[in-house]
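Q: Hi! First time doing this. I have a protein sequence and I read that you can turn it into a structure. Is that right? Here it is:
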Amino acid sequence: MQADNLQQHLDYVSSQGLVLSPEHKAALQVSLELVRRNYKFHQVYFWGKVLGLSADYFIIHGVDLNELKSRKTLYSFNCMDWKLLPPATDEMIVRSMLIKGRFMGDPSHEYEKTVVKKVNEEQTDQDIDFKMKEEERLTSTIELINREAAIIPRGAFIMTPRGEVHMNRSFEGLSVTEAGKLKSYLHFTKPAVLKKKSLLLQANLEESIDFLNSLEDDELKVFWTLQYERGNKLVILQNLLWPGFIFFHVPETTQFGYLYMGLGEKNMDFPFMI
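A: Yes, that's right. Below is the predicted 3D structure, encoded as structure tokens:
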């Protein structure tokens, strides 16, 4: 959620149990503007909080003009002092998924993991040992949540002919009816393969705004729940694969955003709960 509208946006998700203390709200209001100036970001977003055993990680994203490509991630323990996280690689993400249990709340904590891998049918199993710092696990988990859960309303961003992604200044919000459909929301991550099954049914298909995958075409759309609140004046989407992830949109306005507050662990038991 945008730093400029933090107080109002936090109110939209408070009914789902995602709240911050008055002290943290006040600290964020001051520090996010300082982060934007010091790092020369075009925009700063409060991403959320990952709960740790000894301390919690507060997470923000800073972006330049190209909001999809130039994203940088910072963390803090007190909402005042921020440190850059290293970018997550695919290898780091794969390894982070093998680590189970709560975050410690210590970026320097080192996890040790042994993976049993079968080489082939003729050779015996092989033990592979690796170590991973919690800082690497944290940045990998954030990236994975972004890939699987970060969404935007269709039309909120446009892609220029040069491939840059910017806020769409002509976006006025989804209608109340369209806001209740999964096809009206797009994954805010660069797609490996662009799916257009639902878009082919639309007469108003536009390449400048339909450059991302729709939730309607998502193989994991069963993990999403959508509900209206405040007399159809607010739409809430929850991701059940990542408990604690909430997206909101106020129909017919430019107000939208998402927030994560959770343990940083994927709900692998969900298929057995339905």
